[in-house]
Structure to design on (841 residues):
């Protein structure tokens, strides 16, 4: 056959393609035959007789690296060139050779063209014999090793495995006919078919099918899927067993976690998921609940993440007996527990299914603290009312039932404050309202968590104090000394009573005793003089409790006033002169009228001036008294100071 | 702030003590003419004395403060004869300070219009703590003032007897005092 040069580029591409692609692409080619001509191989396969074969070969320029073949071809009239195998490709591509034979192809051709072989030796049409010890290869992780015995009289040209992951060559692993290779396990638990192919040196092919399978490291492989394993891993991790990554592969770590959970025997993975779903049901209750109230509400929450619906009721057990039971499938339910003050109890809960089997348990320690009370004491405090006459009162407070905390107060006068309580009573100075007025005082006991535990309201009453002095407010006496009796009402015992001069000097003092009056003696002023003393009641801080009482001490004079005698004399003289003047006037009138001498007047008593009678002796400061009309109006007038003294004191030296 | 006076802010109980003390002083014997109880019956006397005491204690806290502030050098520099007259506002700030004012009002008891029977001095001492003040002066006149608070303490004596010594409620002066000032200046 003439070489068709026009097909050279196409043939070259085909040859390159055949050369670089794997054995599967060249499986129909005659091993050892290399050519760019398409019709070579079918023609060679179709030549049934030696003569036909030699005729075919005689059409081409045949190259070979086999000396014996080259000689045999030349002896049979075929143009044969001896070209080393390394130069076969350039020789064919350059057109120097139409085909190049080597290896298996050269051997077969040499056998075929030897004279007399056509009758005695039938052509080998069988592929290699494959012997398999097992049809299924399995492993729990990684890859599985495939081993097969492959043999053929003409020799095994090669073997390969075709699987989901492509074609992979087998290699001789022992002797000449034990072939094998490592195959990655499938990413699931289904059996995978693997086709083993072997070809002898004559190009005959044989195939065998084996199974490659991934197995779990524990449990039954039947029915297992990655989803099942992944769910088991999730459940194990959720209940605190370390199953590792949730990848769906049942490896050593997953099986160790199952063993820790008590699952060691052969088990079915499908059943396992159901059991673990129940194991994931949890009850959640507060670890401890403490309060002062007698009734405690305990919230219990049931969680069923796989939605099994197996929980039928939640039971509360006290003292080992079911004290309460509530139907709930999932979610929150509350139980009430009543305790006496100071008691503590462990209350248990369990979630049960319809058969009464406990699926999950929880427990809470419930404690009731002793009752918190505010105890108040103080002078004048009785039954929630603090009655005190002074402007400031003292109130002591302590918290019964708490060892520490805080006490805060706020009163209606706007006063507020707080103090830390550490077991000893706390004293507060409370501002009292105006005398006679009432207001309220609220006190709160606060625990260390800042929660108010007890509130008490106290009524503050400022007792009005009245101070009275008898006799008074003016004492008039001629005695050297007089007694003053001071009575106090509303004051507390111990209140200081003082008798002072107007200048402030203290003349006498005493302390008020409950219900008793104080009698003191005071020296009267000199005769005809007066002075003022002040009686005051002072509270414990020295402030006046009631308006001070001013007592005027008046001592009348014993002598006649100096103006009385001249006035009397003057009056006598005036009346005498008036009598003389009246007689003189009468005589002159009688003489002027020349009237007869008057009849002798009957003997009468000579008229005398009225007598002066001193009924009282006024003192130096006489009282001016009389009918209102006789006196001009008394007026009180305030005169402001138009030039006050002003002094500015700066904190910093600005001036 | 309304212009508060001592008589406005003094507690009623303290005011009553002053009235009682003045009343006692009026009826107390003095050389000369003494007024008998008949002339001034208790009701009339109480009312009259209360009115007189209220009048005597009508001492404006703010007026007293203003007089004190005008005396300060920082303010005087702006309001005195040497103060600038350029229409620009200037602020004189005074830190927390105290003003002590002593008034000596008197209450006269007169018989008609001729005879002055009795004169009773009622000295009033005010100690006022001022929590900072800022005065704005324009053309030598205080046109604006703001202050924090004032805490007055008042002492009232009748003659020489101290009758009241008490702290008055704190007065918040956080607002603008311009109105009161203008009224006082006028």
């Amino acid at each position: 056959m003439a070489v068709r040069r026009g097909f050279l580029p196409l043939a070259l591409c085909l040859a390159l393609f055949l050369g670089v692609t794997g054995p599967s692409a060249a499986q129909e080619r005659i091993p050892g035959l290399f050519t760019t001509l398409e019709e070579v191989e079918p023609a060679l396969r179709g030549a049934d007789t030696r003569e036909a074969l030699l005729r075919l070969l005689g059409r081409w320029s045949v190259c070979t690296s086999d000396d014996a073949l080259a000689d045999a071809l030349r002896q049979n009239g075929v143009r044969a060139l001896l070209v080393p195998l390394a130069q076969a490709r350039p020789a064919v591509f350059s057109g120097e050779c139409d085909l190049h034979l080597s290896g298996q192809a050269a051997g077969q051709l040499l056998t075929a063209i030897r004279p007399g072989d056509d009758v005695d030796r039938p052509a080998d049409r069988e592929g290699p014999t494959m012997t398999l010890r097992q049809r299924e290869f399995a492993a729990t992780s990684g890859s599985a090793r495939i081993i097969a015995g492959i043999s053929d009289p003409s020799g095994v040209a090669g073997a390969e495995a075709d699987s989901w992951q492509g074609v992979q060559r087998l290699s001789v692993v022992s002797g000449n006919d034990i072939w094998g290779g490592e195959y990655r396990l499938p990413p699931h638990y289904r059996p995978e078919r693997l086709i083993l192919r072997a070809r002898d040196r004559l190009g005959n092919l044989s195939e065998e099918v084996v199974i490659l399978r991934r197995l779990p490291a524990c449990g039954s492989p039947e029915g297992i899927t990655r989803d099942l394993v992944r769910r088991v891993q999730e459940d194990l991790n959720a209940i605190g067993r370390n199953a590792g990554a949730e990848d769906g592969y049942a490896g050593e770590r997953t099986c160790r976690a199952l063993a820790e959970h008590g699952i060691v025997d052969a088990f079915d993975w499908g059943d396992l998921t159901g059991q673990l779903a129940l194991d994931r049901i949890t009850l959640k209750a507060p670890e401890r609940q403490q309060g002062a109230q007698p009734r405690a509400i305990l919230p219990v929450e049931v969680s069923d993440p796989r939605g099994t619906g197996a929980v039928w009721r939640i039971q509360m057990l006290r003292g080992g007996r079911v004290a309460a039971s509530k139907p709930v499938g999932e979610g929150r339910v509350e139980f009430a527990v009543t305790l006496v003050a100071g008691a503590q109890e462990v209350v248990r809960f369990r979630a049960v299914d319809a058969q009464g089997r406990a699926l999950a348990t929880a427990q809470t320690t419930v404690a009731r603290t002793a009752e918190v009370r505010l105890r108040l004491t103080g002078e004048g405090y009785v039954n929630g009312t603090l009655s005190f006459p002074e402007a400031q009162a003292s109130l002591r407070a302590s918290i019964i039932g708490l060892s520490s905390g805080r006490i805060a107060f706020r009163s209606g006068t706007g006063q507020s404050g707080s103090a830390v309580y550490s077991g000893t009573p706390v004293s507060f100075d409370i501002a009292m309202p105006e005398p006679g007025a009432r207001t309220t005082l609220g006190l709160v006991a606060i625990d260390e968590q800042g929660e108010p535990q007890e509130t008490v309201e106290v009524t503050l009453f400022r007792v009005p104090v009245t101070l009275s002095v008898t006799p008074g407010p003016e004492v008039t006496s001629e005695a050297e000394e007089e007694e003053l009796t001071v009575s106090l009402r509303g004051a507390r015992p111990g209140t200081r009573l003082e008798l002072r001069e107007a200048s402030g000097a203290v003349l006498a003092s005493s302390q008020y005793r409950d219900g008793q009056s104080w009698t003191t003696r005071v020296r009267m002023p000199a005769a005809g003089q007066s002075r003022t003393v002040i009686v005051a009641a002072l509270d414990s801080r020295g402030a006046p409790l009631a308006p001070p009482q001013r007592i005027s001490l008046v001592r009348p004079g014993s002598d006649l006033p100096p103006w009385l005698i001249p006035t009397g004399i003057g009056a006598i003289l005036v009346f005498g002169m008036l009598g003389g003047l009246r007689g003189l006037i009468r005589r002159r009138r009688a003489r002027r009228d020349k009237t007869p001498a008057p009849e002798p007047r009957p003997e009468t008593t000579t008229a005398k001036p009225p007598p002066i009678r001193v009924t009282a002796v006024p003192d130096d400061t006489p009282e001016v008294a009389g009918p209102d009309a006789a006196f001009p109006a008394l007026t009180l007038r305030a005169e402001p100071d138009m030039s006050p003294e002003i002094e500015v004191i700066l904190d910093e030296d600005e001036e | 702030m309304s212009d508060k006076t001592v008589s406005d802010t003094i507690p009623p109980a303290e005011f009553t003590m002053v009235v009682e003390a003045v009343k006692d002083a009026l009826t107390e014997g003095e050389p000369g003419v003494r007024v008998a109880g008949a002339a001034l019956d208790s009701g009339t006397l109480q009312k009259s004395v209360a009115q007189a005491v209220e009048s005597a204690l009508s001492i404006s806290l703010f007026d007293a403060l203003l007089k004190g502030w005008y005396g300060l050098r920082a303010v005087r520099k702006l309001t005195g004869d040497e103060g600038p007259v350029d229409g620009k506002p200037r602020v004189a700030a005074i830190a927390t300070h105290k003003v002590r004012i002593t008034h000596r009002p008197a209450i006269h008891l007169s018989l008609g219009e001729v005879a002055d029977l009795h004169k009773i001095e009622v000295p009033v001492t005010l100690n006022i703590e001022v929590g900072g003040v800022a005065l704005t002066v324009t053309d030598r006149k205080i046109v604006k003032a703001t202050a924090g608070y004032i805490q007055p303490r008042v002492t009232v004596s009748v003659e020489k007897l101290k009758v009241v010594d008490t702290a008055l409620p704190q007065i918040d002066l956080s607002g603008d005092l311009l109105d009161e000032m203008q009224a006082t200046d006028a």
About this structure: The two ends of chain A are 133 Å apart (CA to CA). Chain A touches chain B at residues 434-435, 473-474, 502-504, 530, 532, 534, 544, 547-548, 550, 552, 554, 620-625, 631-641, 644-652, 654-655 (CB under 8 Å). The mean pLDDT of chain A is 81.
